[in-house]
Amino acid sequence: SYELTQPPSVSVAPGQTARITCSGDALPKQYAYWYQQKPGQAPILVIYKDTERPSGIPERFSGSSSGTTVTLTISGVQAEDEADYYCQSADSSALYRVFGGGTKLTVL
Amino acid sequence: EVQLVESGGGLVQPGGSLRLSCEVSGFTFSSYWMTWVRQAPGKGLEWVANIKEDESERYYVDSVKGRFTISRDNAKNSLYLQMNSLRAEDTAVYYCARDFALDYWGQGTLVTVSS
Fold first, then answer.
1. A7 has a chain B CB within 8 A of its CB
2. I want to staple B40 with a disulfide (CB 3.0 to 4.6 A). Which of A59, B11, B92, B97 is the partner?
C-alpha cells in the first residue's frame, strides 16, 4: 500500500525556521495537504494543494514541492507552533487517501 | 459557521457493531465529498473512508473493507459510518471531515473495542 514518509520529530529554537518533509512516490502527481494537531484537539488544515494557505493561517506557514518530496516550512517559529504535523495525499489512482506518520515539532 | 458534530461512539465488545453519525451545518453538504479519519490512542491519523456527493463512489482503507460502510443522507445533512465485526485495533477517535482538503473537522467521537 502507498505510504508517505515524515521524520518523527523536528526541534527548533524560537524565531528559527522549521522544515518538515514528506516523501511519497505519487507526490509529483497528487496534491499534498498539511495539518497541525495539538493535544486533545482535532487537526487543522494549514496548507492545501502543496502551497496554498487557508485564510486565518499565519503567513509564517508555507508549503513547497519538489519531485517526490513536499515540505512544510514554518518561519519564525513561535512557542504556539509546537504540535504534531501531518501530511496527506492520495495514491497514484487518486482514489485512496493516506496520511504521513506525523512529525512532532518541538520548540526548544 | 461551519460545524461538524460526531456522535455514536462508545464501548463495544470485539465482534460487535456501532454506527457513527456526523451532523453537518454551515455549508452545502450535498455538494461535497465527505471523509472519515481515525486516530488510535497515542498514534497518528489514518484515513478510513470517503464518499462522493451522490453516494455513487465510496472508498475504504484496506483494513476496514468488508466490515465498515460509509453512507450519507443529504436531506438530513448527515454522514454515517456503520462499523461491523469490530476489532481491538479499531479503537480510536473517529473524525468526520469535509473532503478533499479536509478543511473542516468535527471534534471526534471515541470508539473503544474491548471485552
1. no
2. B92
